[in-house]
Each structure stands twice: as C-alpha cells, then as structure tokens.
Write a structure and sequence with these properties.
The chain has about 325 residues and is mostly helical. It has a domain of about 210 residues: MetI-like (MetI-like fold, Orthogonal Bundle). It is built from 13 helices and no strands. Helix 7 crosses helix 8 and helix 7 runs parallel beside helix 11. It starts with a helix and ends in an 8-residue tail after the last helix. Its main location: membrane. Belongs to the binding-protein-dependent transport system permease family.
C-alpha cells in the first residue's frame, strides 16, 4: 500500500509539473497567440477588440502572471482548455473530443491486436528455437527498426492509387456525414485499413522480439527443469510455467503502450491525413494555434502518466515479489 501511495504521489507531482510547463512555455516564446491572430486579419482589429482577445484567451496583460496561472488551473478543473484559432469559435475541448476517437479507435485496436499476435508468435519462437517461427526474427528485426511513417509512405506508394481499394488519405469518403450507419462505418473502416496495417506491421515485430527473448531466458530456469521432470506435457510447461512468467515485462510494456495510443503515432496520421490528434496537431502548428497545441500536449501527457500508473498497478498485481517489503 505504501508503494502504491508513493507512486500516486509521484505521478501527481509529474502531472503538476507538466501542466505548469504547458502554461509557461507559450508565454516565454516571442510573441503571443493574439498577435498571430492580428496578423491573420492584417491589422483590421480595433484596440478594444484586441484587448477583448487578450482577456478571452487568458493573456490579459493587466493581470499578473500568478493570477493567469491560477485562472489556468481553474479552467482545467472546469474542462475549459480555451478557444481554438483554427476552428474559431469552437473550444479546444470540443476539437479534441472530435479528433480523439479517431486516434483511439485506430491505434487502440491495432495496439491490442499487435500485442496478442506478437506475444503468441514470440512464445512459439522462443520455445521452439530453430523452427520456422524462429526464422521470422531477421524480418521482425528489420520491421521493428523502421519508423511507422516510413512504412506509411511505402504503403501509399505500393498499395494506394486511383483504382486501388485502399484510400491514400482521409478518414471517410467526401460527402458523408459521421454517423453510426451503413454508409459511414464501412467507409471509415476502409480508410483506416492502410494506416492500421502500417502500425500493426511495425509494432508486432517489437512484441515478437521481446517475448521471444524472455522465453529463451525463462526456459533455462530451474522450475522449468522441475516441471519437465514431473512429466508434465510440453504444452503445459510452455504456457503455464514459461509463458506465464515471461509475460510480465510484456504486460508492463503493453500498459505503457496504451498511454502512447494518444500520441505515439502522430506522424502516421499526418502521412495519411487521418482526422485524429496527429493531423489536428499539424493543423494547429500551421495556424500557430497555441491553445489547441497546449490542449493536445496536455491530453498526451495525462494519458501517458495514467498508463504508467496502470503499468505499476498491473505489475504489482501480477508479480508477488513487488508486494514484499525489502
């Protein structure tokens, strides 16, 4: 219990530091969001309108920095992340809530599939060394070292085209309105196949390598020899003894990868112009939309911290040794 409370305190402190940096960094860079908006409208704003914009975006120069900092925390607790320049007058929270499901569905499903597939193949490759499964290692090593977005570019070049089944960009066909109906869902699935395949090929390779190496290490342990000496079946020894213990580091890695669902494949979304957080962040960068950038970075930071905490809890539950006092 003490260990658990220490971890929660650590993550709360880290969250405070991340939110504080998220507040100060845009205020330390030259210029400010309002000046970018003034340049966008080529100086066609009155002095009263400019002052109103400073108040609207929480940058009122008549307030102290400390007061702005307190107001920022107040807004966060209320779920108010400010207004977006790119999608003005839509609030940042609304823009993120529209983009986040696309990223979670795409990366979340592929992460779960790659973990299950990679872990299964890794167990097979590690337990039956020298078999056909072990021969996959050079291929998996190559693909695990290739960045997601490079695979995406290659996939577009080889598989996408005017007459291809795979669309090269977008999240659904133009002319459709997002809805849970028989027209939109097939179109969304079709547009997600190529980016999902890109993420799957690259990520499954890492799971195979890590699980295979852990299986090789565990196979030489004494309790595996004892299990064989008891006359237990090969399958039971492999699954109940070897794989069960080799799985612990992979479970922690899987929990951590869940945190990077939100921000781990931003470049893939940019390559495919997929309407998730990555593509939204690209639009925010192009328009110098500081409130939207702050909101996206904050969501990514919090999701990674929560995933780290879940990884600690999962390891605490799965490995009894971590629950014993030193």
């Amino acid at each position: 219990m003490r260990y658990f409370l220490q971890r929660i305190a650590f993550y709360l402190f880290t969250a405070w530091a991340a939110i504080t940096l998220n507040f100060f960094i845009p205020r330390l860079v030259p210029g400010d969001p309002v000046q970018s908006l003034i340049a966008k409208y080529r100086g066609q704003l009155s002095s009263d309108a400019i002052q109103s914009l400073y108040v609207l975006f929480g940058l009122d120069k008549q307030e102290s920095l400390w007061q702005q900092y307190l107001d920022y925390w107040k807004q966060i607790f209320q779920g108010d992340l400010g207004l977006s320049f790119t999608f003005f007058p839509a609030p940042v929270s609304q823009v993120i809530s529209q983009a986040l499901p696309w990223t979670v569905m795409l990366v979340g499903i592929t992460t779960i599939i790659s973990f299950m597939l990679g872990t299964g193949l890794g167990v097979l490759a590690g337990w039956r060394r020298g078999s056909w499964a072990d021969g996959l290692l050079p291929v998996t090593t190559f693909f695990s070292s290739v960045p997601y977005f490079w695979l995406g570019i290659i996939a577009i070049y080889l598989l996408a085209g005017p007459d291809s089944f795979f669309p090269s960009s977008g999240g659904f066909d133009s002319g459709l309105v997002p809805a849970w109906d028989q027209y939109f869902i097939p179109s969304a699935i079709q547009h997600s196949l190529l980016p999902a395949l890109t993420i799957l090929i690259s990520s499954v390779s890492g799971w195979i390598l890590s699980m295979r190496n852990m299986m090789v290490t565990v196979a030489s342990e004494d309790y595996i020899t004892v299990a064989h000496a008891k006359g237990l079946s090969e399958r039971r020894v492999a699954v109940s003894y070897a794989a069960r213990n080799a799985l612990l580091p992979n479970v922690s890695g899987f929990a951590l990868s869940l945190g990077f669902i939100v921000g781990g494949t931003l470049l893939v979304e940019i390559v495919f112009s997929y309407p998730g957080l990555g593509f939204t962040l690209l639009q925010a960068l192009g328009a110098k939309d500081y409130p939207l950038m702050q909101g996206i970075f904050l969501v990514i930071t919090i999701s990674v911290l929560v995933a780290n905490l879940l990884a600690d809890v999962a390891y605490l539950l799965l490995d009894p040794r971590t629950r014993k006092e030193g």
